[in-house]
Specification:
about 190 residues; mainly beta; 10-stranded mixed β-sheet; globular
Amino acid sequence: MTDFFAHPSAIIEPGARLGADTKVWHFCHVSAGVEIGRGCSLGQNVYVAPGVKIGDGVRIQNNVSIYTGVVLEDYVFCGPSMVFTNVKRPRAAFPLESSVPYATTRIRYGATIGANATVICGVTVGQWAFVAAGAVVSRDVADYAESTGVPARQTGWVCQCGERLRFESSAAVCGGCQRPYALDGEGRPEPSPR
């Protein structure tokens, strides 16, 4: 008996560990050695490669492949058809040797990757960051940063709820959830006590 749900069309290889209340939908493939936390959702046609670690409460929408070397921390959102890579300069004629580790890509707590965005391997997307749909991320994204475009550039700051923050001097109050923020000594937002 399992405490997660898997659609009958899903393939979950022996040795994969899935947390309670996780749902794996149509035509997914979860490889051996994968660890998926509690309360996650893997939409239709999601592939999870060997050794991948996925935290609690993660939402992976349809047609996303999570390759070896990708780490998704708790409450990450991966939009439909977004793309991860795990080799910087792939060549069919010169495959990566099995002894060479894949580049590590880390998506930190609460971050969002929009639909059809691409995340090039070896970067870190900071906690609560928001990568817009269609963006191509080729360098690290700061905590709470909004990144858009090709290549992705920071275009603002976002609240934990996802709304854009508008700072006056060094303070902002989210227009959505009313959470207050202040800029730290490096000019980056951090939540303020209410």
